[in-house]
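Listing S7. Sequence submitted for prediction.
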Amino acid sequence: MDTTVLRQIGLTGGEIKVYLALLGLGSTTSGPLTDESGVSRSKIYHILERLIQKGLVSYTIKQKTKYYQAAEPSKIRDYLDEKEQEFRKQRREIDDLVPKLEMQQKVAKKIKEAQIFEGFKGIQTVHEHTYLKLKRGEEYFYLGIHPLQEEKYHLYWQRDHKRRVKAGIKCRLLFNRGTDPKILKDRNCFKGCDARYMPIPIETPAWIMGYKDVTVIGLQSEKGMAIEIINREIADSFRRYFESFWKLSKLFES
């Protein structure tokens, strides 16, 4: 007899053996059932308990001894009906859960990765991530560069622009008004760099840098810090802000 369908509806191999053995034996104790089914004595009671819970086996007690018997085969349909009801209930629960999971996924996608870098070394590190993602001919931008920086920053940027030129990477820089013209003149001396003043008189200690799917928000202070966010939507949003300011800006004239 092909009992594959019984497995498909959720019965285990042991349960099938015990149920079929009971059909042949009629009312019986565990001893003959163990012999007929081929299931070990250590497992027979666990299997019988599961079949009882599924409504496929019942028992009576005679002189303190349990006699087991298989339910009529039509009960298998009842068991399947219960499985279908359970499935429909699970389906309703899944239908309720899926939108919540999708929302959680969307939130997770908003910010895939965010890191905080502190101090002068930290700002160098986050800036030099550009060399890990940008290829020759690609660019990064800075928006709202603070006019006052320590000398060590200027020396670092001069060294880095030489490295940038060798890597074939371009950049566009928007400095806050009030920045010494010598600084913009210096940056524009390097190939592939276009440094300009912000088109509006706004000055904040924070600046924004962007490329690819990366956005960096930096704070120019005594310690200095930068927050690097890796997310395409956020990066594209800040790039649109930059492009709007860039269109209003003018070429630097020394």
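Caption to Listing S7: primary sequence and predicted structure tokens for the chain studied. The chain has a mean pLDDT of 91. The CA atoms of residues 212 and 235 lie 7 Å apart.
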